[in-house]
Amino acid sequence: MKKLLGIVVLGLLLSHNSFAKTINIDDKILLNVPENFNYIKIETNEVADYYAEFFSSLGEDAAFYYVGTDDSIEFANAMVNDQEKVLEPIMKKMEKKNFSTEKSMINFVSKEIKKLMKKRKYQGVIWVLISEENLEDTDYDLFETVESLKNMNQADMNKEALEYKKELKEELSVDGVEGLNLKVSKFKIEKNKINSPAFDLKIAANMFNINWDMEVYGYLKNNKPIIVGSECIGKCKGVTGVKNMIVYSDTTSTNTSSESSSSIVDNLNKLNDLYKSGVLTKEEFEKAKKKLLN
Predict the structure, then answer these.
(1) Residue 215 in contact with residue 201, Cβ under 8 Å?
(2) Which helix (H) or strand (E) is 162 found in, with range?
(3) In the chain, what are the domain boundaries?
(4) Distance separating alpha carbons of residues 277 and 3, to the nearest angstrom
(5) pLDDT, tens digit only, all 294 positions of the chain
(6) Residue 33 and residue 240: Cα distance in Å, rounded?
(7) pTM for the predicted model, two decimal places
(8) Please, what sign has the CA dihedral across residues 155, 158, 163, 166?
């Protein structure tokens, strides 16, 4: 049993070190993401129309980023900026088809979109919006709401969240879009680790037999909004649970390599303890230590 425990702990140590990293975005936020994730800054005017309904009250001085695999970022960016070109091959195929029923058309579109995403290696993306303007200046009513939440306990915030969820459902009503089943699956207000009121939103939809899921987590830092979200069409990997990816720090610009070094030291100490206690042999200890250092 002792040996089995050592193997499990060793596996957790090595897998955590191999498949996760911390990225520093604009010296404003740190995110723990999979090792193969990168990020790019998108010119705000390119996505302004796409996200205008969500973030119009946060001011014009904002930076927007996509986070994910290179292929996923490229696909998500293309769907925002050049959707017609991306979907053109599917549209041409549809023109040549003679669908007997609406269901057959939906099934065809569903399969083609899934094939397209597989070809483009899309696995979902995380996005980050960082505003440089104080919320008090851009949306005073919303700022006052946030200020009032600071003095509430969790029970009172839960009650407020129920009211906001009702309003949100009405605002997101898309009855005019046939076949789109959209719902607010979660809306919670809580205080995060820097004691700032934060909203945790999840939206789920289904169209053409394809699931579409969106997470949005927002809060204020120094009275400036930070919004972290994710979009997943179909099956995705590594983009869910965005609020748990956020690393809170008093000095967010902390050098990420220093944090990584500290993590390696901690893991080496754990390995050393396993070796001294007899859980790991010397050979296993040296092999694990070499993998950590590399």
Answers:
(1) yes
(2) helix 154-171
(3) 1-23+257-294, 28-252
(4) 11
(5) 444 445 444 444 444 444 478 999 988 899 999 999 999 988 655 554 555 556 667 777 888 899 999 999 999 988 877 888 999 999 999 999 898 898 899 899 999 999 999 999 999 999 999 999 999 999 999 999 999 999 999 999 999 999 888 887 777 664 444 456 778 889 999 999 999 999 999 999 887 788 889 999 999 999 999 999 999 988 888 999 999 999 987 544 444 444 455 566 667 777 777 766 665 677 777 777 776 665
(6) 10
(7) 0.74
(8) negative
Q: Are 39 and 65 in contact (CB under 8 A)?
A: yes
The H or E element spanning position 275 is helix 256-276
Residue 157, exposed/middle/buried by CB under 10 A (0-12, 13-18, 19+)?
middle
- Count CB atoms within 10 A of the CB of residue 280: 23
